[in-house]
Design a protein that fits this description.
It contains 15 helices and no strands. The protein is mostly helical. It has one domain. Helix 1 packs antiparallel against helix 14.
């Protein structure tokens, strides 16, 4: 497979997963957290924690914060822009994916563009349509793609982005006042579609220990960090043909090391480091895995990984956009 094809498959999936996860978080936050913060006026307070947890906290845009996250043309990580990038990636490799996958992504982009910018409900519509379309897209992907390298790179982008975003969702209470932190766990469970699973495991009471354990360490819940990293490890071995337990490249070594860490020392490390620092360290390792994947399969470069991987991801998106414009 050409590296260009693999890269577009991977980024198509990552961009759509990014849009889906941010849509989930915005909807859940709007539904549950705003009531808790109603005494403090202004969207700067209400939405700032989401900017921080999604690494968009340094925005200097004149747009209001909700617009910046959902429909901004300036913010390359906004929901609307992420859908645009996913659609452009898919357009570049239409012959590699199922026709229905392209139709779903293209239809989503066209429908989002048709929403009136003056519609007071625009942001909610964008989030709901993106979330629904992502579910349909994943269903088509699961039921129509042959289990080849094409499928593996699509899945790889999905699970790496999902692991990163779940880890960030777990970190949300760190950016909230202490009096509001406890209620944030309901938001995180809802954003991750984990409310029912939490209820079956732990009953109706939601607390930090149980919710974080589910979202970080579950071996069966498909949005947990541990589950996603296990899939990343399996997919990397599938692509290279390396036997389980061994590794052929640094991406496989990094993924295996993170999986072992999550399997054997996760709870103890949280006790030693604290949840925020632990989650930060997991994000560093996930970013390292992403860098090694790009170095091994896409870029084939010798540069050291960037200190700010989120900025690097954004720069890659911008580079893709420029290439697409030139093409």
């Amino acid at each position: 497979m050409l590296s260009r094809v693999a890269e577009n498959l991977y980024w198509m999936s990552r961009n759509l997963e990014r849009a889906d996860n941010l849509s989930r978080l915005v909807i859940a936050h709007q539904s549950e957290l705003l009531d808790a913060t109603a005494s403090l006026k202004g969207d700067q307070y209400e939405w700032h924690p989401l900017l921080e947890v999604t690494a968009m906290g340094d925005s200097e845009s004149d747009e209001d914060l909700l617009t910046y996250m959902v429909s901004s043309e300036e913010n390359t990580q906004s929901i609307l822009k992420s859908v645009f990038f996913a659609r452009e990636n898919a357009r570049a490799i239409r012959d590699q994916i199922a026709e229905e996958m392209w139709i779903e992504l293209n239809s989503l982009w066209l429908e989002l563009k048709q929403i009136d910018p003056k519609d007071w409900n625009r942001h909610k519509l964008i989030c709901e349509m993106t979330q629904q379309s992502s579910l349909i897209f994943r269903g088509i992907e699961y039921s129509s793609l042959p289990r080849t390298d094409v499928w593996a790179f699509v899945q790889l982008g999905e699970y790496l982005e999902r692991a990163d975003k779940t880890s960030r969702i777990v970190d949300l209470p760190h950016y909230l006042p202490k009096k509001d932190a406890a209620s944030a766990w309901n938001t995180m469970l809802r954003a991750s579609s984990a409310t029912a699973e939490h209820r079956q495991r732990y009953g109706g009471e939601v607390n930090a220990a149980n919710a974080s354990s589910l979202l970080l360490f579950s071996t069966t819940f498909p949005r947990s960090v541990r589950y996603c990293v296990k899939k990343i490890d399996e997919l990397l071995h599938f692509i290279s043909g390396t036997a389980p337990g061994d590794y052929l490249n640094e991406a496989e070594r990094e993924a295996g090391a993170l999986l072992a860490r999550l399997n054997f020392s996760g709870v103890e490390e949280i006790g030693e480091m604290g949840l925020h620092d632990y989650v930060d360290s997991i994000q560093v390792e996930l970013n390292q895995i992403g860098w090694e994947i790009m170095q091994r399969y896409f870029l084939l470069c010798r540069d050291a990984p960037p200190s700010n991987a989120e900025a690097y991801v954004t720069s890659r998106m911008q580079a893709q956009q420029q290439i697409q414009k030139q093409g």
